[in-house]
Amino acid sequence: MRADRLLAVLALLQAHGKLSSKEIAEKLEVSERTIHRDMQALSVAGIPVYADRGNGGGWSLPEGYRSRLTGMTAGEISSLLFLQASDVVRDLGLAGSTRSAMNKLLSALSPAARRDAEIARERLHVDGAGWRDAGPREAGASLAVVQEAVWASRKLRAMYRSSDGEAAKERLLRPLGLVVKSGIWYVMAIAEPDDEVRTYRVSRMEEARMTDESFERPEGFDLAAAWEASLVRFRDRLPRYDATVLVAASAWSRFGRERFVTVGRQADRGGGWIEAEAEFNTLDSAVGVLLGYGRLAKALAPPELRARVAEEARAVAEAYAEDAE
């Protein structure tokens, strides 16, 4: 897109000082005529681009303007990196263009600013996929301290409350990176003394303090890959309840989209019915899902599921009968 290219042109001029139309065109893989049109567009927009004619000439920006461009802070760079995971960018089909523009911008930054950007990329990951039960956005009072410890590679002492409701316990962590998913912040850290990489929900840190002790990050640590691996382990630990169900063909499309159901083997039983192997989270969730389909779904196995659905259906019928009296 042209906006991406104009941003890249400015970044190149900021980094190199002066470039010819040919040099810019080669770097951006466009024609020199395109670059001339881009320079005209920048001038119309009020960007002070200047052309020096003759040998050794080229396009350049005034020194004062170049200095303002190089003044990007680590926070500003991080905010730009967040664009790549924006729902709006994905919805408009611009994820590839935004990623390309960011890469061009980062390549044109000064060495110090580029290092800040690489730190942000290494230690900050945005998971654009949502949880099934995404609640309100939460950060937690300790987020700023955790972020500082991640950026500075300093150990963190935190009173952490686990999900089972037990009292908070002190943890000594080597924080490697922050992850945000559906507005919920997590920190991936090496827990001492067992030296295992674990995931902690920042909002469950009742107290956090950055220590004076620094640490070396594991060589080659990939935050995004580590996060995906943790998700796989999390899903593997989730409860499973296997069942065989019969679903009306008219409701099959809806059943296949159920968020808490994984559909396995299926077969057409004729008469407008489809039999399928289905994996639910628990017995209770299986009962709730099937009841939601009324006469359009039926449990075939196991027997306890059939009995529970029938029991709940009778209770519903009785409740309505009482209302009618």
UniProtKB/TrEMBL annotation:
Pfam families linked: HTH_11, WCX, WYL
Annotated HTH deoR-type domain residues: 2-60
Keywords: DNA-binding, Transcription, Transcription regulation
InterPro entries assigned: CBASS_pafABC_assoc_protein, DeoR_HTH, HTH_11, PafC-like, Tscrpt_reg_HTH_DeoR_CS, WCX_dom, WH-like_DNA-bd_sf, WH_DNA-bd_sf
Gene3D superfamilies, alphabetized: Winged helix-like DNA-binding domain superfamily/Winged helix DNA-binding domain
Top-level division of the source organism's lineage: Bacteria
Protein name in the entry: WYL domain-containing protein
